[in-house]
Amino acid sequence: MAIKASLLLSLFILSSSLIAQDFTRRVPRVRIGSVKKVSGSLVGLGRSDRSLTYLGRGDQILDKQTLITRSSSQAIIKLGYQSEVIIGENSKLTITFMQGKNRYLIRLLQGVIRGTYNGAGKPEVYVTGNSLDKNYGSSQYDALSRSGRFYFKPRNKSPVYKFSTSKEGRSQLEISREEIELLSQSDPNQKPVYFLKKTKAKVKKKEAAPTVVSSSSAVSEAAAIFGLSETATTAVEEASSIFGSSEASNRDEAANIFGDEVLESKIKEKFSDNTGVLLEKKGPTFRELEVAAKKKKEAKNPLDLSLYLKSTLYSSAPREDVGNVDPQSFHQDARLNFGNKYSFNDVESLTFSAWLDISNRKEVYNDIGETFDLQSSKRNYLYLNELYYTYTTRDMDIQFGKKILKTGKGIIYSPSDSFSPADGTVPTAPLFLGNFFISADYYLGDWTLTGILLPTVVPNKSPTQNSRWTTLYSDLDYQLEQDLPSGFSTRETQFLLKLEGTKWGTDWLFTFFNGPNTNPVIRNDIQVINNTPTFTLIQEHVPITYLSAGFSTTLKGFELHGEFLTQNAEDGRDDSFTAMMIGFRYVMDNWPKKLGLNNIDFVLEHGRETLRSPQSQPFYALSSLNARFYQNSWVGTMIFNVNDSLSFNYDFHFDLKYNGSAQILGANYNSGSSQYRLKTEVFSGDEESNFGKWDLNDNITFEYVINY
Amino acid sequence: MEFFMPSLSASLILSFCLSSGFLCAPLQAAKCDKEGNAIMKEQDKRQSAKTEEEKQKIVIQDVKSKKKEERDLVRFGIKPKENDSRSVLYFNSPATIKGAGLLSWKEQGEENQWLYIPEIKKLQRIASGSRKEYFMGTDFTYADLEGENLKKNNYTCQGEMACPNKQGQCYIIEAKPINESESRNIGYSKRMLLVNKDKLITHKIVFFDLKGAKLKTAEYVQWEQIGKLWRPNLAIMDRHGVQKTFIKVNSRKLNKPIDDLVFEKRFLEKEMHIK
Fold it and tell me: At A398, is the secondary structure helix, strand, or coil?
C-alpha cells in the first residue's frame, strides 16, 4: 500500500514539474540572479502559474519570481553585479527587476533577509514590505517582515537610501524613529537575529516523516489515518516537503496568522529536538515589540465608533388628504455613534455614548440651539444618550447619570419595559434612549434587589405630525405641546423596584413601578380668547402604577419566557389594563442543513392586553393606546443562517385586534467590521390600526454599518 | 427585530478544549496493555484545574478564498465542586460582537446559560445549542468543546506509534460513542486520538462522520507546562478542504484566585467585562 502510494506521489510530483516547465516556456522571463547556496529547502513559485520548483545551487532566479524558504532553511542568492542576499528561514519574498531604474526590488512578504552590496555608490537592491510606497536600500542591511509589519535596519552604520515613485534621496531619518528603535531593541549588538548558525551537527535538509514504531496492522491503519508514513520512502519525504503533512502546513499557516510566537515556539521545539540548529535570540521578540507598539496606538484612540447609513425608497407617495406631510419617497439617514468606558480603578467607571444624526426627513430635528433639550419630542442632531458613573462593591452597585435601562424577559416585547423610552421617529428602526437615574443594586446570592429613581421623564419620541409614519393623521393643523412633569413628588418622579434571580433552573422577575407614564396621553385644552374657543392638544405623562412578574426557563431545546403586568392610571386619565406576553426561542439545526443552511433561529411571542378601565377623564382625547402595539399580537422572527457571514430574516407582527400586519424580509451580510442589510417592509391593516395607517409606507431599505 | 442569536451557547468551552484538559489534555505514561478507558480517566483526573483564565485569539480561515476572520475572546472558569462549574466568556473583538458574553453555570447536573448582547442591554437565558453544531462559525462543535466525556465514550487502545514532530511515543486510542443515540448527537461515528505516552497529552484527533469517512483533524501544539498541568497554546482544527480554525492562547492563568463576582450575572449585565 505504502509503496503504491509513494509511486503515485512520485508520478504526481513529476507531472507537476513538467507542467511547471511547460508554463515557464510559455511565459519567458528575464534571469536576474542565481542561487549561490541553499541549506534546507528553497522553493521558487511561478509568476502567473502555480508551478513550484525546488531551487539548488546555480539555479536561475527569474524576474518577478517568488521565493520561499521552509523552517530550518536558509539560502544565499546573487543579484545584479555585486549584491548578495541571505534569506532566513520561513521567509517569502518576490524579486522584481526595475528596468527603467536598473534596480532590483525585493518585496519581503514574510521572514527575514540580510543583504550586502559590494559595489560603490548607491546600492542595486531595494527592499520593501507589503506596501510598495517606500523602498529602502543600503550597502549592508537586515530586513524583517512579520504579521504585516516591515522593519529595515542598516548594519555597520551604512547609509540608507530610499526611493519612491515620487522622489528619492538619502537620509537616515526617512525611516521612522519607531522602526529604528524597534530594530535596535531587538538587535542591540548589531548582530543579526533569526538567522541559522551551523553547529557541528549538520542541518537536516528535509524533515523526516515520523515513523511508526510497532507495525501491527492496526498501527499501519492508524498511520494512514494520522497522515504519518509507516516507512519513510524518498518519494513520501519529497511529497511531504512539497505539500507538507497537514500539520506542517497548518502550523505554517498559524505562523503566518499569529506571527512570531508560533514561529518561536516551533524553533524552540526544533531546538529541543536537537536538530543541530542553534538560534541567536536576544532582547524582546518582535511580537512583544509589536504588541507594545500596538498598545501605543490603541491608547491614542479613545472612542468606539460606528457609522450607520440607511437609504429607504417607498413604493408610494404619502397620504395627500391630510395635513402637511413630508412628500419625499426617498429617505436617507446617517448616524455616527461614539462612546467609551473609562475605568478609574477596579470599582469606579464612567461610561458614555452619543450620536451625531442627520437625515433628509422633514421637520424631524430640533433647532441647533435646543441641542441640549434631552426631553424634547424631536430628535437632536447631536444627542448625548448615556453618561453614567458606576461604583461597585462586593454586595452593591451604585449608578447614576443617564443610561439605557432595560428590563423584562421578552426578546421582542416586554410589558414591564414600558418605562424605558425609545426614539420611534422611524418606528421600524427605534433607538433606545437613556433615562436620567440613580440606582442601587443589592446582591444576595443569586438574587438582586434593585431600586431605581428616575427624577426626570425622558418621553418616547413619536413620529412628528408631518411624518408619513405618524398615527395622528388629522385634517386640522393642530399644535401639539408637551406637559412634562416637574417636581419630586411620587406623581412626578418615576420609581422602579425590581427583584430578579434564579431558582429551580428558571429566571424570575418581579417589578413595581410608580410615577408618570413614559407613554403620553393627549389632553385637549380649551381656552377662550376674545370669545373664541382655542384648542390645544397637549401630551401629558399621567401618573400610573404597575406590578409585573416574569420568568424565563429552558425545556429541551426551547427557551420559554413570559410576563404578566397589571397597570392602573390615576383618575381615569389613561387606560387601566392587564397585559401578558408568552413566547419561546428555538434553534432548528437538523433539517435546515438539507437546505444548505446552518440553522434557523426562531423567536415567537404573543402579546395580549385586557382593558379593565378605559380612559374616562373629560377633555382627554387619546389614551396611550396607540403606543401599545401588542394588544393582541403575534410577533416573531425567523433567521435563516447560511453561514457566519450571510443570513436571511423574516420578521413579522400580526395585529389581530386591528387585522393589521407588518412583515419584513431581509438579507444580511457581515464582512469583517462591516454589515450590509437589504430589506423590504410591507404593511397592511384596518384603517384605525397603526399598520393600516402605514399601508403607503411599504419600502425597500438598504443599511450599512461599519465599526471602527 | 433582528437579533444576535448565535448559538453562542457552548462557548465556555472553547477553552475547555485548550484548557481544561479533556479533549486536548493528557497524561501520564501507560503502556498499551493498559486499557484505553483507564488512560483517558487518568488524563481527566490529572489535568483538572480549579480556576482558569485565558485570553485567546481565534482565526477562522476559509480554505478556498483564504478569507480570514479574527476574534479575541476572554474566558474565566471555576470548578467550586467536583461536578459543578461556572464560566464566563466574552468577545473583545471584532467590533461587531465586542462585549457579547456567555455565562454558564453547571450545578447539580443542571445547566444554565445566559447570553449578553450589548445592543439589547439585557442578559437573556438561552437553551444549549445542539452539540453537533459548529460553535460561532468555527470548526469546533459544541461537543468538541465540551472536552472528553468519559461516560459517553468507550476508549480502546490500539497500539503505539511515534508522535508527530518526534515528541515521543503515542498511544493510538479509538473513541467510540457508547450508543447510536450519542453518536447521532455529536455527529461522529468514532474518533482516533494520539495520546503521548510520556506526558499523556493528546497531540492529534481525527474525526469520522456517521458514515465512517474522515471528517476533520484537530492538532494541539505549543504545549506548556504550568505546575503539573499541561496545556496547548495552539489548537488547529482542519475541516479538510473547507475551513480551518486556529485558536491561539495569548495568556493563561491556572489555579489563581478569581473573584466570584466574575461568575455572577451582574458581571455581564453591568458591563463590567467591557473595559
Answer: strand
